[in-house]
Amino acid sequence: MKRSLLLFFLMSSYLAAEGQVNLREPFQSCGINGSITIYDYQRKKWIASDINDSHYPTLPASTFKIINTLIALESEAVKDEYEMVKWPGSTDTVKYGFRPKIYRDMSMREAFQLSAGWVYVELAKRIGKDKYRELLQQSHYGNVDLSIDDPDFWNFGNFAISPANQIEILIGVYEETLPFSKVHFATLKSMMIVEQTEGYILRAKTGWTRDGGKDTGWWVGYLEKEKEVYFFATRLIKDRADDKPQFGKCRKEITKTILRQLEILE
């Protein structure tokens, strides 16, 4: 599943056809640098606001919870998504964020929805990096650089994935072609639902890491409506010293604005 090998050719022709839509304007309106990459599954066409950025890898932050959920279930780090993970008692709010509501015993399902990073860090200790390397390599996820001496390698260190690769992984989730059990795909897909109407289902995950003096924010996922499926990966990057209080909100706002401009989302 190496769709990105054709990305430059397919995207160039598609962008010409979609030239009437200014994909960069929503980023400018938010005053934040970033890009969006979209894959139209039925038409096998790519759209991007910045073709180079589509292939630039950075830390995945909490978007890693998508494949991490599959790895945790497959490796039996938890028996199911409802098993309670005990809060270890750490008060490292610099690392886990100033959100006291997440500092308690919690299931993986709830941790996914609340983006409680500490739960997945505890599971990572059970899984071990050897197992991660094996499954990440089989899945063709990112650069598989887990060299940092920290179980939270998706928020800190040199581990990285590009927006185009994010979409390849999401396609593998949708098609259930990644090296995981069918039952675990069903669990993950249920956990990923953020919006569901009569017309569509939106499955997605946010991410935000503050490593290296940068704020890197993601929103990745896919939208199913009738017989069509659209995959997206939006990423914003700014200097931490640059005060942009709308940074978190813009990830979703930019994505939805562009999906509406392209008449993917009503």
Structure description:
By secondary structure, the chain is α+β, with helices and mostly antiparallel strands. It has one domain: Beta-lactamase, CATH 3.40.710. 37% of the residues lie in helices and 20% in strands. It is built from ten helices and eight strands. The protein has helices spanning 7-17, 25-30, 65-74, 93-96, 108-114, 117-127, 129-139, 163-175, 182-192, 247-261, and strands at 33-40, 45-48, 84-85, 106-107, 193-196, 201-209, 214-225, 228-239. The strands form two sheets. The protein has a six-stranded antiparallel sheet, with helices on both faces. Helix 3 (65-74) packs across helix 6 (117-127) and helix 3 packs antiparallel against helix 9. The longest helix is centred in the C-terminal third of the chain and has 15 residues, at 247-261. The chain is globular, with a radius of gyration of 18 Å. The model is unreliable at 8-18 (pLDDT under 50).
List keywords for this structure.
Beta-lactamase, 6-stranded antiparallel beta sheet, two-stranded antiparallel ribbon
